[in-house]
Amino acid sequence: MRTGSIIILTEVYLLKEGVNVFHYAKDKNLTTDHAILSSGLFSAIRQFSESTRSSAIDFLASKDEIFIYDIIENTDLIIICIFENNIQQSVAREIIHEIKTQMKKLEVKKLLHGDMLDPKKANRLTKTITDTAKNLLSVEYQVVAAKEIFEEQVDLSYLLLYDYKAEKIHFFESFNVSSENQVRQFDAYKQIQKTFTKLISSQKLGKNFRTIVVIGENFSLSINKYKSVFNVAYSDNNLMSHEILELPFKIMSLPSFTDYEKNFDNLPKRSSWILDRKSKLKTNEGEPPYWDSAENIINALTSIESLIVSFEKDGFDEIKIFIDEPRYKQIIITKNYMLDQKIVEMYYD
Questions:
Q1: pTM attached to this predicted model
Q2: What pLDDT digit, counting tens, does each position of 257-288 carry?
Q3: Domains and CATH numbers, the chain
């Protein structure tokens, strides 16, 4: 699934004295009966917790979803928001705060007409919720998620949200990177954007990359790109490589990297080239390279290796470049240490 289509706020209920007065659903096929039954269940759970515990329940989780309760201040209204479970709870609560703010602007208490929300005004509220959900990939929400993730992942070495166009750091935490190497890294990110974009476009694979994964002998690095913001996670093998690869996806509230990677599993190999120690590129199998392929590959590798050096590492074992627009395509570059060669493979339909 491509990031531009992700809206993971699935339902919103507004309850007045345990009765549903408004329901928003991402799935337009959900029936009125579904809303009535679900709101009754949610109300009963909260009432049970109030009567048997010291405080009312405000959070529930299932295998696929999370449910968050909140109150609309100075009213007798309760809001319940349901999210797909790949969202960080801090981001979910930030979204609910935004929806509540908009409800107050709409004076939602005054919108009640009898036992239900007035239909015309309900449409206004639906648009507010939809617009808020569509902003889920905004940098502001990513920063909220990054803060929570960095606090949770005690073995995480480095986490960054960086706008390479504006040269602006939105979030940065690191345990072992010097200020001098930080400067080198920001230059490397700009070069990575430039060189990998040129490599991908020159091979007619698309316009840009979505994710770059770099695995070395004792480190893992993941760069996820949305618009002009790089979302970067790095670890000195304190975390398993697959855990590092998941973090940028968690920050963006996207389905897991594991699920995303499945889109590339069955792509056929179209070409395999060998880049030798003298920077000569020759065909190993499949389609031959273009006249400028060697130069573009070398420039891309130079930018990645510059970033690796800034983490005080020697080199990479494997680089995977994921492209998902206009179609799923992939470049995999592996290092053959015995022959001092790099193998470059292209996969696409």
A1: 0.77
A2: 888 999 999 999 999 999 999 999 999 999 99
A3: 3-137 (3.30.450.70), 139-348 (3.30.450.30)
